[in-house]
Amino acid sequence: MEIYNTTGTCSRQIIFRVDDEDRISDVKFIGGCSGNLQGIAKLVQGQKVDDVIERLSGIICRSGTSCPDQFAKALVKYKNKKNNPEQK
């Protein structure tokens, strides 16, 4: 389970899991617009990490980011941590 603290959005945190095939298996947004974020979570479930990063990166709502953009950033951070385990 990964935990990402968001910045610049109504949601405060994103909790997610990625399976062994690099697919998103679970997503939960803490705070924010519940219906929209539940929809995003359902839509990305089962999708490849790289595909979700490509689709959600750069979506802007306010403060130069959005909840989908923050999730893309969380996935990039996850990938970097996975590919460089010695870095935190």
Strand order of the largest sheet: 1-2-3
Category by helix and strand content = alpha+beta
| Principal-axis shape | globular
Mean pLDDT: 95
Largest sheet: 3 strands, antiparallel
Q: What proportion of the residues is helical, as a percent range?
A: 40-55%
What's the total number of strands?
3
Query: End-to-end distance, in Å?
Result: 15 Å
Please give a handful of descriptors for the protein shown.
alpha+beta, 3-stranded antiparallel beta sheet, 3 helices, 3 strands
Notes on the protein architecture:
By secondary structure, this protein is of the alpha+beta class. 41% of the residues lie in helices and 23% in strands. It contains 3 helices and 3 strands; from the N terminus they run βββααα. A 3-stranded antiparallel beta sheet has the order 1-2-3, with helices on one face. α2 packs antiparallel against α3 (67-83). The radius of gyration is 12 Å and the shape is globular. The relative contact order is 0.22. The model has no long low-confidence stretch (mean pLDDT 95).
